[in-house]
Amino acid sequence: MKTPRFTLFGFRRPCESVLPTLGKLERELMNLAWRSDEISVRDVHRQLGEAVAYTTLMTTLDRLYKKGLLTRRKDGRAFVYAARYSPEELEQGIAQDVIEVLLGRGGEVEPVLACIVDAVSEHDRGLLDELDRLVKEKRRQLQD
After folding, report:
1. How much is the pLDDT for 35?
2. Distance between CA 120 and CA 129 in Å, rounded?
3. Alpha-carbon span 125 to 138, nearest angstrom
């Protein structure tokens, strides 16, 4: 059954919601963190040139740390930052949160599962086999 597709005011797809909610500089710093093992304010300041103040970079990296997107460790008097999650892990976490909300909303679970199966089959029929394999694998894990 083909379901209608609509967008609610201000609604974005979950995988499109996290990074756009970050500011432009925050997104740029996350991309730098994903490309490097570790970054420091000094490293970022050198890469971006004098376009952004050193203290602005320090504050922005600290915000990303407080939001849980970066880890940090002390290196002398400065902090060195690293991405807490890869882009793929971040997207998977968002997907898990959405599924948990849908399944935990107190209503029937079957329509949610049916929508997931429909979406998978509309995207790629071969993914149905992968979904079936994952379900069987999870059943085996739960029996052990």
Report:
1. 95
2. 10
3. 21
What CATH fold (topology level) applies to the domain 14-83?
Answer: Arc Repressor Mutant, subunit A (1.10.10)
Confidence (pTM): 0.64
Distance (Å, whole) CA 25 – CA 34: 14
Length of the chain: 144
**Amino acid 105: pLDDT:** 66
φ, ψ (nearest 5 deg) of residue 80: -120, 130
- What ranges do the domains of the chain cover? 14-83, 87-143
126 pLDDT tier (thresholds 50, 70, 90): confident
| Residues 1-44 pLDDT 10s | 444 444 444 555 554 556 557 788 998 999 999 999 999 999 99
Annotate 66-100 with b (16+ C-beta within 10 A) or e (fewer).
eeebbebeeeeeebbbebbbeeeebbeebeeeeee
The four Cα atoms 23, 9, 18, 32 give a dihedral, to 10 degrees, of -40
Looking up tokens 């209503």, which residue turns up? 107
